[in-house]
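User: Please check token order:
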Amino acid sequence: MIAKVIVDVASKSVDYKFDYIIPEQLESVIQPGVRVIVPFGPRTIQGYVMEVTAEPDAQLDVSKLKKIIEVKDIQPELTSELIALSEWMGSTHVIKRISMLEVMLPSAIKAKYKKAFKMKDDIEVPSALLQKFDKHGYYYYKDAQKNNDIQLLMKLLKEDIVEEKTILTQNITKKTKRAVRVIEGYHPDEVLAKLEKVIKQYDLYAYLSEEQHKTIFLTDIEDMGFSKSSLDGLIKKGYVEKYDAVVERDPFKDRVFEQESKQQLTEDQFKAYEAIKAKIVSQEQETFLLHGVTGSGKTEVYLQTIEDVLSQGKQAMMLVPEIALTPQMVLRFKRRFGDDVAVLHSGLSNGERYDEWQKIRNGRARVSVGARSSVFAPFKNLGLIIIDEEHESTYKQEDYPRYHAREIAQWRSEYHHCPVILGSATPCLESYARAEKGVYHLLSLPNRVNQQALPEIDIVDMREELSEGNRSMFSKDLREAIQLRLDRQEQVVLFLNRRGYASFMLCRDCGYVPQCPNCDISLTYHKTTDLLKCHYCGYQETPPNQCPNCESEHIRQVGTGTQKVEELLQQEFEDARIIRMDVDTTSKKGAHEKLLTEFEKGNGDILLGTQMIAKGLDYPNITLVGVLNADTMLNLPDFRASERTYQLLTQVAGRAGRHEKAGQVIIQTYNPDHYSILDVQKNDYLTFYRQEMEYRKLGKYPPYYYLINFTISHKEMKKVMEASQHVHKILLQHLTEKALVLGPSPAALARINNEFRFQILVKYKSEPGLLQAIQFLDDYYHEKFIKEKLALKIDIDPQMMM
């Protein structure tokens, strides 16, 4: 028997299936989807079995094939569906298959490789080094570096006294807890007869033998009132033993979720629910675009359709755009479905994520809630996939391997013959255009579920504030509105899409601005650490007391970040309790949920935050939302800037007045006449959609054209320019005249981490030769990168143009 294996080497040159002989003793356990350990050149590495066949390919010499060394799994980690998906992504998106397989799996499953020096048999190592080798004869490279032994070891390597090895280790660590069990081989009645005179030992043994089908922990024994001496006595007599029982890491083990019954649906909700239910029952693939205003009850539609899926014995997947939204969504799902819910997101530890993933794989959880990568959850019988806030750009992975969760969801829904729901108050233009064409089925929820009016939205022209002498970042209207809410003991949400203390530092005499030495961008000032930081490469430096350019002492922070706003708010409203939510305050595990819980409990008056507070918050006491600067995204050099501004402002405005108390939204802007801001005020998605579509048509942008962005980068400008011209030439050779090839030109961020960046943008409708061109360029520049570190990034359907 032959196994076709994808090996754990992220190189284009080995991105195909290798044939390995399956040893006879492993034939019964090796199947597609299991991990195996195989010899590969001089190394021993991990691989994934993609196929099992009776014979190798005809052109291969069987005598030269190597044998599989070990199988790591009893049950496959990869389903046949995920294997097929990895093949499809590899062929259509120019992604190495090992990279695709590894993004599908929790990091705990991935192999780790450690370089080490190994003692050779029968050859003596100098005594000074001997004690540094472990019991298996290895001295790890990392430890040798730390101990300054590398030079000596390299000398021994040349003298053939030691050899270099790569050691394969696993990330998986099982959590264990001390437990007690009866020792097999004794008949309980016989043991109990011998213990009749030792009453406490008798009672304990009787309990353990009756409950031996369960795991009994040491702590359970103590809680039951049995003494340590009774247990020790039974262990000494050889009737029971202690052992390490594997326990599941449950991130919600200390939480109690009150059962929640389903709510009465409104007429609009019921129509949407019935349309989706029909496809669930008939097991047909269809994509529904659920367009509902903020507070229209989209989540309740999700929950009730999932109930129908579970009643059919199937499974459901729920995606949210970022982990800040997960706590509230998890709460609702856990209240409705209890332990049937598994949670998958980057805020969990590796062990917790692995255990949640295993719950899905083993069929113990039939519903998943998670961020982007949870789209690969190992369900075998999906009945529904839901993508909430489907317009969010975070559903696209920007790093390699690049994929869009929406596209993966579509593929999986076709595989399982099940519907997909794309939910949003502000659908992306591409999705709404598909709904208008009939590619998607449009469902509308035009009203809030409790008949509560949408909040009143006021636009403040900050130019007028400035002309009236108000240089503060709080307009007169916003200041008064905040004070009114504080007096009423109501809550306020303030939104600013900029973290840090100040945008940059500026010398008021010569105009000098401290720049990152590695990137073409100014440094951001962070007050808590008193450092200037680059948010792209991580560079940081101490802020200067005087200008390095002209030696003036008039160098100050300019612009405002969340840290600065927090300070100004505290000065303006001394008694206000402020909770700040941004990347800096939510970096620790569980910080998102902790801060939101504090605010929900009423332990904060003002919630100040970046994009992570714009969506999902549903608290009855929020009656005011303030947008401090609506122009932050509007001025970005990206064709989606207006769309993202409209979406973000609509989402954050939707946090106000969702329950009985009326809501107000104040948007501060220097562009009060911009259509994206005016349409937010009118809550008029269709008018915005029509106007933005006109601009897209004129500019030949999606949804009228598809895009591919090619970014070439290197430390030498000359090499970048030469490679850019070469990429441009290859594209022109493969594409028709209907395609538009723009560039090469410097990227909006022309240098990041000391690498110059040029871009070429291709706009097209249908290009049969495009995939061939992409594959050629990917192969060619893979070799170039190995030899010269000249990188080509190919981004299909780019979400970020910077």
